[in-house]
């Protein structure tokens, strides 16, 4: 049946070469024909691409001699131009089934090996399925009308709200950045104990409360520890007192009341330490599908692994690229925390620079926004948020107050 359709489609294209474009837009580089027929189809596409005249005689004289009897056989078939799209669809469907069967067999074979990495296999499977899906659902050029409408919708939203992306709850930050934009990779970097996790928790809490669900990979702190920070944030009770249970009855009652409210707040926490990038991507796709998260937060980049024996710089580069690709795939912003190099401590002014991003310059390259949290001199409760890179906007800085006891940032008015 499939071979009959292949013959019929090629016979039709020989007589009606104007349909080659229609077929090739869907088939692309997919090998939907058996090998000898694929060679004939390839010659047709080659001539069509060169804008040369195509007919059965030209094709007959363009293919190797061993294929000429096959071309003569095609010439004898009655063409059916009205059925070109149906034939193409059927052949592509058959190609999909064959491809799934082939890499399914490959994955099954690899999975039987005792040294197989489960998460690497999972990532390989998802990547192959995604590539196959993308190759079938080919994205065409946007029309001028569609592109103009997308841009105008974006501009109108910004003009109505003052912010085109996700609001952060920090007005001066939103004024500078326009909020967090879909598909953006945002790097939030700082030295240890400056408050980057606290800032990320602030962002997660505000977005989940006002705009939609948040996915949070907490690779350094447990779910319990992160939620304790949120309770401290909302109650104003010192986190150290919460952790030690040094609470009055009133404070304990307040903590319970806040915990019940937080139980309804759509922040979904995953606290697997040293998570493989393949597992991270798989779980991100799942939470996006199930909860339609508006943003993903990863705390922090250097705790993600690839399982490969590359240098640490190559590994971090691979993770950075994977996160940027994931942001585009899920069409959400990803906020990824990152460590800064110790070199910053050796400089007199100690202001973070892009070159301080630890272990890889690729982080700077892949990121749409790079921002640093910097402790300001003698002011223990003051923090500068430095926007060192913004692909689609200006750089700058804002000043915040940081209450380390209850892990809370507030704007300086």
Secondary structure layout plus pairing:
Layout: H1 2-15, H2 20-27, H3 35-49, H4 56-62, H5 68-75, H6 84-111, H7 118-136, H8 144-161, H9 171-177, E1 185-190, H10 196-210, E2 214-218, H11 223-235, H12 239-244, H13 249-262, E3 267-270, H14 277-291, E4 295-299, H15 312-330, E5 334-339, H16 362-366, E6 369-375, E7 382-390, E8 396-403, E9 408-411
According to CATH, the homologous superfamily of the largest domain is P-loop containing nucleotide triphosphate hydrolases
Termini gap: 74 Å
Based on secondary structure, the structural category is alpha/beta
Q: Could you say what the CATH architecture of the largest domain is?
A: 3-Layer(aba) Sandwich
Please tell me the total number of domains: 2
- Helical residues, percent: 40-55%
Tell me what you see in this structure.
The protein folds into two domains: 2-136, DNAb Helicase, Chain A (Orthogonal Bundle); 161-411, 3-Layer(aba) Sandwich (Rossmann fold). Strand 6 and strand 7 (382-390) form a beta hairpin. The protein has 413 residues and is of the alpha/beta class. The chain is built from 16 helices and nine strands. Strands 3-2-4-5-1-6-7-8-9 form a nine-stranded mixed β-sheet, with helices on both faces. It has helices at residues 2-15, 20-27, 35-49, 56-62, 68-75, 84-111, 118-136, 144-161, 171-177, 196-210, 223-235, 239-244, 249-262, 277-291, 312-330, 362-366, and strands at 185-190, 214-218, 267-270, 295-299, 334-339, 369-375, 382-390, 396-403, 408-411. The termini are far apart.
């Amino acid at each position: 049946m499939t071979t009959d359709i292949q013959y019929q489609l090629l016979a039709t294209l020989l007589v009606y070469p104007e349909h080659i474009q229609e077929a090739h837009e869907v088939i692309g580089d997919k090998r939907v024909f058996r090998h000898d027929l694929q060679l004939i189809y390839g010659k047709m596409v080659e001539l069509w691409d060169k804008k040369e005249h195509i007919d059965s005689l030209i094709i007959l004289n363009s293919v190797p001699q061993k294929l000429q009897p096959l071309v003569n056989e095609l010439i004898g078939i009655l063409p059916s131009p009205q059925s070109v799209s149906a034939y193409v669809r059927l052949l592509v469907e058959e190609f999909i089934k064959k491809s799934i069967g082939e890499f399914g067999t490959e994955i099954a074979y690899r999975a039987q090996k005792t040294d197989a990495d489960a998460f690497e296999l999972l990532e390989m499977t998802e990547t192959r399925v995604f590539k196959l899906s993308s190759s079938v659902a080919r994205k065409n050029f946007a029309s001028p009308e569609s592109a103009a409408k997308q841009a105008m919708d974006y501009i109108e939203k910004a003009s109505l709200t003052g912010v085109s992306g996700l609001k952060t709850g920090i007005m001066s930050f939103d004024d500078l950045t326009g909020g967090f934009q879909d598909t953006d990779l945002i790097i939030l970097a700082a030295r240890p104990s400056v408050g980057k996790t606290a800032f990320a928790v602030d962002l997660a809490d505000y977005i989940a409360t006002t705009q939609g669900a948040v996915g949070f990979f907490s690779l350094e702190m447990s779910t319990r520890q992160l939620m304790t920070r949120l309770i401290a944030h909302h109650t104003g009770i010192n986190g150290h007192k919460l952790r030690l249970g040094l609470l009055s009855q009133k404070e304990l009652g307040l903590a319970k009341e806040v915990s019940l409210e937080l139980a309804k707040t759509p922040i979904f926490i995953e606290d697997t330490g040293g998570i493989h990038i393949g597992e991270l991507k798989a779980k991100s796709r799942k939470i996006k599908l199930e909860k339609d998260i508006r943003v993903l937060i990863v705390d922090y980049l250097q705790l993600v692994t690839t399982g490969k024996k590359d240098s640490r710089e190559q590994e971090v580069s691979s993770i950075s690229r994977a996160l940027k690709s994931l942001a585009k795939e899920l069409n959400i912003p990803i906020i990824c925390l990152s460590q800064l190099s110790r070199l910053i401590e050796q400089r007199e002014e100690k202001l973070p620079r892009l070159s301080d991003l630890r272990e890889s310059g690729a982080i700077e390259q892949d990121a749409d926004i790079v921002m640093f949290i910097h402790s300001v001199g003698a002011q223990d409760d003051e923090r500068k948020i430095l926007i060192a890179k913004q692909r689609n906007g200006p750089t700058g800085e804002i000043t915040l107050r940081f209450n380390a006891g209850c892990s809370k940032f507030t704007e300086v008015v």
